Amino acid sequence: MTSHNDQPSPMTFTAAPALSGSVAVPGDKSISHRSLMLSALAVGESRVEGLLEGEDVLATAAALRAMGAKITKVSAADGGGGRAMGADIRRDDDGIWHIHGVGVGGLLQPQEALDMGNSGTSTRLLMGLVASHGITATFVGDASLSKRPMARVTEPLSRVGASFTTSPGDRLPLTMTGACPAVPLDYTLPVASAQVKSAILLAGLNTPGITRVVEPIPTRDHSERMLKGFGADLEVEVQADGTRIITLKGEAELKPQNIVVPGDPSSAAFPMVAALLVPGSQVTIANVGLNATRAGLIDLLREMGGSIEIINAREVGGEPVGDLVVTASALNGVEPDPARAPSMIDEYPVAFVAAAFAHGRSIFRGLDELRVKESDRIATMATGLRAIGVTVEELEDGIIIEGSGGQPLPGGGPIATRLDHRIAMSFAVAGLVSRDGVTIDDMRPVATSFPTFTALLQTLGAIA
Ligand code: S3P
Description:
This protein is an alpha+beta fold and about 475 residues long. It folds into two domains: about 10-25 and about 260-460, Alpha-beta prism (UDP-n-acetylglucosamine1-carboxyvinyl-transferase, Chain); about 30-260, UDP-n-acetylglucosamine1-carboxyvinyl-transferase, Chain, CATH 3.65.10.10. Helix content is about 25%, strand content about 25%. It contains twelve helices and 22 strands. It has helices spanning about 30-40, 55-65, 120-130, 150-160, 195-205, 220-230, 265-275, 295-305, 350-355, 375-385, 420-430, 455-460, and strands at about 10-15, 20-25, 45-50, 70-75, 95-100, 115, 135-140, 165, 170-175, 185-190, 210-215, 235-240, 245-250, 260, 280-290, 305-315, 320-325, 360-365, 390-395, 400, 410-415, 440. A four-stranded mixed sheet has the order 2-15-17-16. Strands 4-5-3-14 form a four-stranded mixed sheet, with helices on one face. Helix 1 (about 30-40) runs parallel beside helix 2, helix 3 runs parallel beside helix 4 and helix 7 packs parallel to helix 9 (about 350-355). The two termini are about 30 Å apart. Shikimate-3-phosphate binds near residues 121, 194, 195, 220 and 369.
């Protein structure tokens, strides 16, 4: 992943006139990673439409290629098929991806280190895959990823039989050797993490016997849905208290699929909050994934008083999807229940911006996981919000934010984004409702998940 070696790309976002128009956000990042990985393990050719072509997903594609999968992109213009587009809905033509899988158990030893760039999802899920193949692989990443904890996956995957040589603190760079045959795991997740759950399930694919994951707090369930879609023998039992028990029969045979990736709700969060905050706005965001394990921000913003209407609710690729009509609204402070955190875990930075513009105080707690994302998102947001004139108190597990009551935020910067795409985009949104503008120190990280972000803001009339 080269972009982080280039010069920083600062940018200033200033007060915007009312936003209007229809836009679509790029494909879901979580689903894109999984579609490539499962396609790589199916026997035969899978096709993926709407894949997110951000750096994180491209890191997954490169790693799978290095382990033997043949992955090509056929652009619609080359006759690979197109996506029906509404007349006023703009979406990048992502083309269609074709993946020839190697079959479960067929991954080859990569000849060079796998460069994971900024992507924790690529790293942890691919470690799961390698854990039950008799191959050795080295994982490296950028400065942000190299600080993130990996013990949460190395610990369970060691029990599967994989062995690890890690950098101090169980961090990247690390080298692992998978076990073949691996040992099936029965594991209760100690942290609510879809990445850990998915790593264990992916390891279970090439493991004889039954792999069982117990999830006391539900997290995004894209892996379970897609594994079933590819023909894996997987069952989910939901207990009375909400605990989910997932069982997967190993030595699975996956059948190639045609997958359509819905738009990413985590990317839709930015135009959604922008449209709520900029007075007079009304925006349609088309084709947004509405899986209940991901839709927490919509509920939160509605509780704050936000007008978000869901139209054209439908199913795309086994996932609920709809179009969102978002109208500028006066927002009130909130104190959300921490149990809801997994359903909006990546949306807190932009939720904090909404809270900064709301009437009254918001109290967010129970968010320890935010400290180990692409940056420490509690500290990075607290520092940045203070720099643009917002009164905040940083807590060990959260933040208290005094809302401006709908008055423009003073503005300032440059905001230190710390290689974190969602910090950059959150403060870009804050700039749209600021008096003096908000300067972001480096917009390059946005390419990891939302390469069309500034183009989309232009379409809405938010930036020139
Ligand atoms: C993801 C899970 C979440 C999320 C990340 C993507 C996934 O991480 O923050 O952006 O695709 O499984 P955790 O599992 O660490 O909560």
